[in-house]
Amino acid sequence: MKQKILIAGAGGFIGGHLVKYFRDKGKYDIVCADIKPLEYWFQLFDNNKNFSLDLKDYENCLKVSKDIDYIFNMACNMGGMGFIENNKAECMMSVLINANLLRASIKNKVKKYLFSSSACVYNSQKQLKTFVPGLKETDAYPADPEDGYGWEKLFSERMCRHFYEDFGLETRVIRYHNVYGPMGTFDGGREKAPAALCRKIIEAVNKDKKKIDVWGDGKQTRSFLYIDDCIEGTLKVFNSKFYEVFNVGSEEQVSINQMIEMIEEIANQKFEKNYQLDKPKGVRGRCSDNSLIRSKLGWDNKTTLKEGLQKTYKWIDEQIKSGSNIDKFTKSH
Ligand code: GKE
Which of 96, 201, 261, 267 would suit a FRET pair with 69, their CA atoms being 20 to 30 Å apart? Predict the structure, then answer.
């Protein structure tokens, strides 16, 4: 009997890559679920069971988790700063997905459940300066996370812990730090900084423009995790024996200006910057500290930001040039 895996949020960025990973292994029955209509899924494979439905609904959670061994819950209503800052209530509604999938996991005797949390749970007071020390897992408390989205993630992390302690469900929790790469959104309002800035520079090159828009003053910092490293880290945590939370991120902290310089090198062209101080900026500085996952699981980020940006830039450039089928990556669904 093949093991049966449910990927919730299979139509999204990390979910789509996870589906591909398991499909390439060839030894699993894969059930995929996402609220988006199938034509908008970033990666769609015919030989899986694909459900377009709303996992905020308990009955739908029961349906897709029937006879499932393992759940990867990547489903949530999210995006980059431009989305989460302006859609706090929508972001918080994702708590229903996690609550109902956890309940259904108990009912359907699921063996293990992974929840995708975020660096947005970290205490904002630790992220007031540029180039902050890396955030350790303990830095989420005392709680003062990103408003809306971050509170939902922190609450759902906590629910996973108590479903383990009270009901014995094996839960795993990962705090992802700004994951980027090919097959993700790059326009339309949900895009994050790496894809957005690659797209802006590609468009400037194509239209022979000399200036690009940048949100904030460009001095704010982040660390960005390439999707291949993200998938590897996800599997490490999932297959481990630990139900405590782990960072899965990069320790390569850069300012947005430094990231733009890397993209300019890839494009082989420099641009003037129009700094838009009224746009969503989020925290001033953020970076992962990987000490815990390095020491307990032997995982670390491998891809440099420059390497990851090269691949992302190339992919976005190809999408824009071909122009076919790009609605799903450029419109907010
Ligand atoms: N999205 C975007 N688009 N951000 C830009 C742009 C642009 O054109 N230009 C500059 N930025 C700046 C933003 O103002 C912000 O300060 C920084 O880049 C990073 O923005 P982001 O990639 O949209 O998102 P954040 O890192 O602030 O937050 C994200 O964190 C993740 C976890 O680390 C969240 O939106 C979640 O997507 C996620 O949980």
Answer: 96
- 93-134 tens-digit pLDDT: 999 999 999 999 999 999 999 999 999 999 999 999 999 999
**How many angstroms is it from 190 CA to the middle of ligand 1?**
10
Q: Would you say the CB of residue 214 lies under 6 angstroms from ligand 1?
A: yes
Q: Say which of 70, 113, 149, 180 is annotated catalytic.
A: 149
**Residues 126-154 pLDDT 10s:** 999 999 999 999 999 999 999 999 999 99
Q: Is 80 in the pocket of ligand 1 (CB under 6 A)?
A: yes
Yes or no: say if 230 and 300 are a contact pair by the CB < 8 Å rule: no
Architecture of domain 181-222+253-286+304-330: Alpha-Beta Complex (3.90)
What six digits make up the tokens of 81? Answer: 């700063």
Instruction: State whether residue 254 is helix, strand or coil.
Output: strand
Q: Against a cut of 0.85, is the pTM above it?
A: yes
Answer yes or no: 149 catalytic.
yes
Q: Give the per-residue SS3 of 159-225.
A: HHHHHHHHHCCEEEEEEECCEECCCCCCCCCCCCHHHHHHHHHHHHHHCCCCEEEEECCCCCEECCE
Separation of CA 221 and ligand 1 centre (Å): 10
CATH 3.90.25.10 placement within the chain: 181-222+253-286+304-330
SS3 199: helix
CATH no. of 3-179+224-248: 3.40.50.720
Structure tokens, 52: 């377009």
**Which residue has the CA at smallest separation from atom 3 of ligand 1?**
193
Ligand 1 midpoint to CA 216 (Å): 10
Ligand 1 close to Cβ of residue 9 (< 6 A): no
Q: Return the CA Rg of the chain.
A: 19
How far does residue 17's CA lie from ligand 1's centre (Å)?
21
